[in-house]
Specification:
There is one protein chain. This protein has 437 residues and is α/β, with parallel strands linked by helices. It folds into two domains: 2-199 and 363-435, Alpha-Beta Complex (Quinone Oxidoreductase, Chain A, domain 1), CATH 3.90.180.10; 201-358, NAD(P)-binding Rossmann-like Domain (Rossmann fold), CATH 3.40.50. The chain contains 15 helices and 18 strands. It has helices at 2-12, 72-76, 125-128, 142-148, 178-181, 191-194, 200-210, 226-237, 250-260, 273-280, 300-307, 316-324, 346-351, 364-376, 396-405, and strands at residues 31-39, 42-49, 59-66, 87-88, 93-100, 112-115, 118-119, 154-155, 172-175, 182-184, 218-222, 242-247, 263-266, 285-290, 325-333, 355-358, 387-392, 412-416. Helix 7 (200-210) packs across helix 14 (364-376) and helix 10 packs parallel to helix 12. The chain is globular, with a radius of gyration of 21 Å. The two termini are 26 Å apart.
Length: 437
């Protein structure tokens, strides 16, 4: 059925997206390529209208680099509520300022910028503390308010649960409050080194800082995707004496050992992860970080509960972490949990005095200048180490399929548009997904 639908789509060509009712579009009718959601594992490259200035604080960004984030797979699998057919995906992107609203005085047309994945108002109590992810004013989701008691900030390209803002897997993006949510970057620093200031660099840094990794700590990291890899690097820079990564993907485990020099545990072989960790670290870890994902249960019990919609998330990783840390150890949760999990080991949490920290969505605005100026520009942290491939935006449908399956060692992919600069020295050159082995 799906193959037939894809074949029909190929014959028909790009389709219209659902037009966001609050957005203006170019009066000349000009169009752009964008990646949109139409159902579970059904994303399509569409022909969409180019957005125009709608509010006085808007900035239109001409995208020079975008990517898929691991959390986008929750959307791909239909696990995030309130997605609508035609929603443009993507929350990690950068580009050049194309148009500015009349209230925007701190940015100029042609200036290179990175967008934060969250949309902050810049004026509420949280924004004044640069806690941009907790902005009170940019997400109108009544469902999130009901479930959580309040709302996060609006996010680009992440369903109407986070405000319904069209995302950055496109050639142009309207950035609301663009005077607040765009970071200017130096012209002599290539896109590959700054694009991830949009999400994974502040997110991984926040996990390490918020959970309190300090000199001499032994740190365990569950999940060696891009967030986990970057968290491992940050932990090393913060003085961790040992870092142990837990995953099951052979390429990730090999990459972590080779590129970062950390110890690894393959949970496809060591089924009882806490027992293995306590063998390596008698007494337990000082810090455990969940950089994994909620949508892949390990055990039959949780596979059944997920299938029957008796839980939205699984507690298996957090339970492993609680058992693996020492008494009064710290567990940080940066993985994107969304709802409810059963069989959470609250007894061990209480009896061991474990500090269980929901890191929340990372406040990008709190960290991105620090990361740029103190780590990237001086060369202490080169984010390009995490990029495995570079592809054109035309390949995004196939890229989602391969990214979901972790085929060809794909991890972080730089997706170029017609506006992108050539690859920077030492970074992956352009390939086509169909040519990957």
């Amino acid at each position: 059925m799906q193959a037939a639908a894809n074949a029909l789509q190929d014959r028909m060509g790009p389709v219209e997206t659902v037009v966001h009712p609050e957005y203006k579009h170019r009066q000349d009718g000009s169009r752009m390529k964008a990646l949109a959601w139409f159902g579970t594992q059904d994303v399509r490259l569409v022909d969409a209208p180019i957005p125009d200035i709608t509010e006085p604080d808007d900035v239109i960004v001409q995208v020079t680099g975008t990517t898929i984030c691991g959390s986008d797979l929750h959307l791909y699998h239909g696990e995030i509520m309130t997605l609508q057919k035609g929603d443009i995906l993507g929350h990690e992107f950068m580009g050049k300022v194309d148009r500015v609203g009349p209230n925007v005085t701190n940015l100029q047309v042609g200036q290179r910028v990175v967008a934060s994945f969250q949309i902050a108002c810049g004026e509420c109590g949280y924004c004044k503390q640069k806690l941009s992810s907790f902005c009170d004013r940019t997400n109108n989701s009544s469902l999130q308010n009901y479930m959580y008691g309040n709302r996060d900030a609006g996010f680009f390209g992440y369903s109407h649960f986070t405000g319904g803002f069209p995302g950055g897997q496109a050639e142009y993006v309207r950035v609301p409050k663009g005077n607040v949510n765009l970071l200017p970057v130096p012209d002599d620093v290539p896109d590959e080194k700054v694009i991830y200031l949009s999400d994974i660099l502040p997110t991984s840094y926040h996990a390490v800082v918020d959970t309190g990794v300090k000199q001499g700590d032994v740190v365990g990291i569950w999940g060696l995707g891009p967030i986990g890899m970057c968290a491992a690097k940050w932990a090393q820079l913060k003085g961790a004496s040992r870092v142990i990564g837990i995953d099951r993907v052979p390429e990730r485990l090999a990459f972590a050992k080779e590129k970062l020099g950390i110890e690894v545990v393959d949970f496809s072989k060591d089924k009882d992860v806490p027992t293995k960790v306590l063998e390596l670290v008698p007494g337990g870890l000082d810090v455990a970080l969940d950089c994994g994902t909620f949508h892949q249960p390990k055990t039959l019990m949780h596979k059944v509960q997920k299938a029957l919609m008796l839980e939205t998330d699984v507690p298996e990783i957090v339970n492993e972490m609680i058992v693996s840390v020492r008494k009064m150890g710290r567990c940080g949760i940066i993985a994107a949990y969304a709802g409810f999990a059963n069989q959470f080991n609250i007894g061990a949490l209480m009896e061991k005095g474990v500090r269980f920290i929901g890191n929340g969505q990372a406040p990008v605005h709190l960290y991105w200048e620090e990361i740029l100026n103190e780590y990237i520009l001086p060369g202490k942290f080169d984010p390009a180490f995490i990029i495995t491939h570079r592809v054109p935006i035309d390949d995004m449908v196939e890229l989602y399929q391969r990214f979901d399956k972790r085929d060809a060692g794909v991890e972080k992919v730089f997706v170029e548009t017609r506006f992108s600069s050539p690859p920077a020295p030492g970074c992956p050159t352009l390939t086509r997904v169909k040519d990957w082995s």
